[in-house]
Amino acid sequence: MPGRPSAHLTGATIGLLRSKSGCKTCKIRRVKCGEEKPHCVRCTSTGRTCEYERIKSSKFSSTSSVLPVLTNPLSLSPNTVWRERRAFAYYFQHAASSVGGGLDVDFWRTIVPQVCRSEPAVWDAIISVSALFESPEPIVDPGLTQNHRDALGWYSRSVSAVRQQIQRGSIDTFVGLISCVLFICIEALQGGVDEAIQLFCQGVHLILALRAQIADGLVTAAKAALLEDTIVPIFIRLGLIGFTFSRAQISALLRDSEHKPIRLFVSLRSAREGIVRLAAEIQFFQHTCEEHLLRPDVSHVPPELMDLQTVLSDRLRDWHTAFVNLMESMHATEAVTPQDIGTGALFSAVYEALFIMLEVCVSSTEAITDTFLPNFQRIVEQSRITLDASMRSDGTQPPFTFDINPGIPLWFTCLRCRDPTIRREALALMLRSPRVQGFHSCMSAVTFGERIMLLEEMNGEVMSAAPEPMHFSTTESLIGYQYSPYSSDSPSRASPGSSDPETFTPTAQAIPEEARIGHFDVFQPEKGLPPEMTEEVMAKWNLSRDRPFLGFWRNERDPTNGTWRMVREYIPMDLKY
């Protein structure tokens, strides 16, 4: 049996930091390359030619992406020290208060800078985050701007330093964890979703290792408090943003954390931790209900899940009561700031989304969400207040956030609310949200949400146009069909990405149950077909197998006996409709 994790990181702990970008000579000789640039020490000390492969990449995880910097090493560049100090000042003044939200500003503005005083790798990671915050827009060639050249170089230097400490066995686990958090931010800002997810999983591994050390009395009380009060909640909130792939990690983090009954909140931060834990448990509950309802010949959830729904509903109600009391007390003492108002509005929007989710997830019908249109409207209204409060002086939002944010309840609204006006308002507000939220691009979410909305509206249009009840199939209706909002003779019917996201709104009429879709997933046929997807269906589309497909479930009514069943359908992701 393996023993408890050691107090220091091992080479296997942060797999992403293992280099695959050594020089050609060391690779051929199958020896460890130190990756010094422009020529590694191992080659120069033995008189060998040293060359590095020029791999085209924009990902931070690949050292080859810093080639434009390596031809002019940072340590020899003019004004390098000045640029580093300027980047740190920008981080301290602007980025630190935005990365994790205002409620975690002590961690980002105090604790992390304190660590960087003795850890050059953390310093380099901080200034890399700062450079990307100041110039967040992705570019094809990282050599185009000084900020991106600096960010690439500093990140590469930080990764190399951490890797060397791991190899020497001299890195403290807490330093490795803080470095991991910063690396996630860097990868996410550069669009490295897979790399950021891998780092997230490795960060959870480090947290579990630290918890084992705490249990053995090997960690100070101050560090143990920092871990549980600040770092673990950061990872839980990140996991909620990426719940599709992070369920196992969130479960592990919650397993050893204490659940406290909600009676009174002394701060907005304590209210946030309460709603975040509830959000995790409610999403797990929703996932369990979905798995049950998607089974053949199942139309209801079992009594034990209904009992759990009651328990979660009571806890959510208790949270809301304590939260309302907190906000009233803050207003009574005039201790509330505009930022507090924005934070309170955010928590209200998240509460409304969780309330709806908890009520509807025990039902197999999609039309049940129509009962909660006032709640969806409140999500939009409260999200607007939050975005107004977090807007910077230049009218923009911070480019990235680790914290819960309006994008979460707005995304839920885009997928589950079928009122065309509310739905489009939610999409428009998502465009105002931080460009990167946790692991994901906000624009990708907007594009996906818009496609789901238009697909359901097209389905409803097809069914409404039928002179009599018909057997409906999304696949059959889409082949050769052109949906009106994309019609070439209607240029004013713009997508949410246009200057006026609400230019076109269809008539507010109920979308039929059969036209509504849910339980989505995306796959590529070239990597294998799902069990329900046949070659016959693929042949109907007559498309190359490298194009992504969207899978979804919907309810279908049997016209002969009036019973309902769940059916699975697939359509190309990039289909124009």
Automatic annotation (TrEMBL):
Fetch the Gene3D superfamilies from UniProt: Zn(2)-C6 fungal-type DNA-binding domain
Organism (species): Penicillium canariense
Pfam family for this entry, one: Zn_clus
Q: Where is the composition biased (Low complexity)?
A: 485-501
Q: Which InterPro entries match?
A: Transcr_Regulatory_Proteins, Zn2-C6_fun-type_DNA-bd_sf, Zn2Cys6_DnaBD
Residues in Zn(2)-C6 fungal-type domain copies: 22-52
Q: Which SUPFAM superfamilies match?
A: Zn2/Cys6 DNA-binding domain
> Keywords of this protein's UniProt record, alphabetized?
DNA-binding, Metal-binding, Nucleus, Transcription, Transcription regulation, Zinc
Q: What segment(s) does the record annotate as region Disordered?
A: 485-505
Query: GO molecular-function annotation terms?
Result: DNA binding; DNA-binding transcription factor activity, RNA polymerase II-specific; zinc ion binding
**What name has this protein been given in UniProt?**
Zn(2)-C6 fungal-type domain-containing protein
